[in-house]
Amino acid sequence: MELVFLWPGKTKNQHLRALQEEFLSRLQFFCRARIVETAEARGVKKNQPGRVLEMEARGLEKHLKDGYIICLSDKGKMMTSEQLAKLLEKQAMVSAGKIMFLVGGFLGLAPELMTRADLQLSLSPLTFSHELTRVILLEQVYRAMNLIKGYSYPK
């Protein structure tokens, strides 16, 4: 199984970046996992959100190849950790073992990316910053991998 986490821009908060790297490192025990940080939209005025989304979408699309695409969305399906584990286990078998998670920037993901998604996933009805969302996603995927392998993971 290969897990690919895609998002525009680097995580600027050093504490969140350290947590992100910690969970990525832990995931390596279970499978190949990597983060792909594409270019953030630069030089675009903040009053042009459509242009920002379009520019960021172009960078992300370059990395979307074969595999199962999960886009994070506040309107997506909510799952328990156990349900996420079952989904990942199933998709690892049927999608050539490659699962791609897309996390948007501060404006989210462009509509054209959302339509390409095999699944739109919501991590919570609460709103998180895009940088914190990255850490939460990595932790939940790490938790799911522990469940798949039958290891205990504290609640």
Which tags fit this structure?
single chain; 155 residues; alpha/beta; Alpha/beta knot; five-stranded parallel β-sheet; 5 helices; 5 strands; 22% strand; globular
Question: Could you characterize the architecture of this molecule?
Answer:
α1 packs parallel to α5 (130-149) and α3 crosses α5 (130-149). The protein has one domain (2-149): 3-Layer(aba) Sandwich (Alpha/beta knot), CATH 3.40.1280.10. The chain is an alpha/beta fold. The longest helix is centred in the C-terminal third of the chain and has 20 residues, at 130-149. The protein is globular and about 50 Å long. Helix content is 43%, strand content 22%. The protein has a five-stranded parallel sheet with strand order 2-1-4-3-5.
How many domains comprise the coordinates?
Answer: 1
Cα-to-Cα separation, first versus last residue? 25 Å
- Helix content percent band: 40-55%
Given as residue ranges, the uncertain stretches (5+ residues, pLDDT < 50) are none
Largest sheet: 5 strands, parallel
CATH architecture: 3-Layer(aba) Sandwich
Count of helical stretches: 5
What is the count of β-strands? 5
- Which overall shape is indicated by the principal axes computed on the Cα atoms? globular
Strand order across the biggest sheet?
2-1-4-3-5
- Mean pLDDT, as a whole number? 92
The share of residues in extended strands comes to 15-25%
Radius of gyration over alpha carbons? 15 Å
* N to C succession of SSEs: EHEHEHEHEH
What is the name of the CATH class?
Answer: Alpha Beta
The CATH homologous superfamily is named SPOUT methyltransferase, trefoil knot domain
Please identify the structural class as seen in this structure.
alpha/beta
Instruction: Write down the CATH topology.
Output: Alpha/beta knot
